[in-house]
Amino acid sequence: MQDPAATRPGRVCFVGAGPGAADLLTVRAVERLRDADVIVHDALVPARLLDDVNPHAERVPVERCRDQGLDPGSATGRLLVRLAMEGRNVVRVKGGDPTVFGRLAEELEPVRQAGLAVEFVPGVTAAVAAAAAAGVPLTSRADASIVSILTGREADDKDSVVDFARLAKLQGTLVVYMAVEQVARWSAGLLAAGKDPETPVTIVSRCSWPDERIEATTLGTCAADVERGGWRSPAVVIVGASAPPSGPLAGRLVVVTRPAGQEGDLVAAIRAAGGQTLHVPLVAIGEPPAWRPLDEAIRAASTYDWIVFASVNGVRAFGARLAALRLDGRILGTARLAAIGPATRRQLELAGYRCDLTPAVARSEGLAAELAAGCRRGRFLLIRASRGREELRLGLEALGHHVDEVVAYESRSRSALDADEAEAVVRLPVDWIVLTSPSIATAAVQLFGERMRHWRIASISPVTTAALEPHGLRPAVEADRATAAGIVEAICRHDQGAAGVLPPAGSPMAAHLPPTSRG
Ligand code: SAH
User: Quick one: fold of 253-282+415-518?
Assistant: First the structure.
């Protein structure tokens, strides 16, 4: 490094990132990540999570090395030393908690030897994240006063170091990490040691991720369940506790199609109602063809009466360009800010702005009327997607206002599913698919084809419903309010209204099909 002040070595901080969801990061973890000059991470920490917390720090990925012969831990440790010696603040971020199955001892050794300052920030480890997601207690006064955490994966060429005979006798709960690859081996070990095959077991895969899956089973059948179910890593298995799914959407699997990074609200609302989700984003958000129009609009921001954000992405892109231009919120002057819906409003607030208006009805039509209410011959700047709708501009212009529109991001329909997604929608018993915009609805028809006729469709709005019509599809429900909560309410109402008479998952919804497609 050129800076002479930088010859003083930086610090190394081991940070637990939790199981993957951004809101399971601790406040301290967020602070350390924000202060980092360089972030050393592995595959368990989603890139998106780091993007949100600190998009500026250099990132160094460390491949997880399964080769027992090498010592990837100490190689990573030496890397941390090298980076800190450059005078940089180094954060070594690990999935879950850094002290649990994280090769911490090996990574720490060179750091301590180099005499560097070290700090540890705990994280939510997979065992407790999974227990919470499944709603099962890990201890109980009656029959579980010990919790054991063990690895399910051991090198094939050495005898098991896990003492199954002793584990099987413990009055407690076992949480198996790295659980799926060798489930036959460890479950057989416990059974052979006399553990009851009827012992309740909970499998939790990709806990807190958009495709989290939870299943209650037993020790005797869990190996066969895992084999059959194609469970994806990372997964833990809790032995000794399970709970039947509960809530109005218990046992329902809902396909969520929102773009990556925007599925959070919907996924959370579905899970809160007891449902499970499969996230298959159908449109991808990317950069617009050119930044110039947005950049110019940002520089002229203070000349507008209103700046209107049509989506969360618009707010994100606006903020990113503001930073790229080395500007900040002062450039907005007295311009007022409007958001088309509550999620967009929240994104503005997260970025430190106050939102002056969110229309009562989260649709372009409602927004035009409300915006125009207190304003004559106003100047409006609309921040929108490449495929946004025209109603708002037309509505405002009809009322005599001046409107400039800039494209802040491009939304492109995906042209194909990847192999995992294609396999998952065939293998898993999908009940519902949620469609949250006309372009997503069209993409769903293209990518899922006939399968759409076997799933119940939940549409977020009349325009989304209209996009399905040309394809002879009708949603089973349409949300009253165009929000995540609104759509989940509609689904719950439908399923509860039809309680007991629901056709099994995967059977055609004849009632919702036009005559030509029955068969
Ligand atoms: N330090 C991590 C564990 C790393 S070992 C922690 O404290 O959680 C990797 C194992 O952790 C995986 O094989 C899996 O068993 C578990 N794991 C990590 N993240 C998980 C997640 N989101 N869902 C389920 N299991 C997870």
Answer: Rossmann fold (3.40.50)
Cβ 314 under 6 angstroms from ligand 1: no
Is residue 498 scored above 70 in pLDDT?
A: no
Same fold, 127-239 and 253-282+415-518: no
CATH code of the domain made up of 286-413: 3.40.50.10090
pLDDT digits over 153-199, tens only? 886 666 677 889 999 999 999 999 999 989 999 999 999 999 999 99
CATH number, domain 9-124 = 3.40.1010.10
> Is the full-model pTM beyond 0.85?
no
Tell the residue nearest (CA) to atom 5 of ligand 1.
101
Which CB contacts under 8 angstroms, 24+ apart, belong to 360-363?
A: 362/481, 362/482, 362/483, 363/461, 363/463, 363/482
Q: Which residue out of 44, 97, 104, 181 has the highest number of ligand 1 atoms within 8 Å of its CB and is therefore the one to mutate?
A: 44
Report which of residues 6 and 349 the model is more confident about: 349
pLDDT in tens, 191-233: 999 999 999 999 999 999 988 999 999 999 999 999 887 788 8
Give the CA diameter of the chain. 81
Q: Is 44 in the pocket of ligand 1 (CB under 6 A)?
A: yes
Cα of 263 vs centre of ligand 1, distance in Å, is 22
> Whose alpha carbon is nearest atom 25 of ligand 1?
235
Separation of first and last alpha carbons in the chain: 70
Closest CA to ligand 1's atom 13: 178
Q: Which atom of ligand 1 is nearest to the CA of 206?
A: 23
Tell me the CA–centroid distance for residue 20 and ligand 1, in Å. Answer: 9
Q: Which long-range contacts (CB under 8 A, 24 or more apart) does 349-352 make?
A: 351/315, 351/319
Taking only the tens place, the pLDDT of each residue in 98-121 is 999 989 999 999 999 999 999 999
| C-alpha 236 – ligand 1 centre gap (Å) | 7
Q: How many CA atoms lie within 13 A of 83 on its CB side?
A: 23
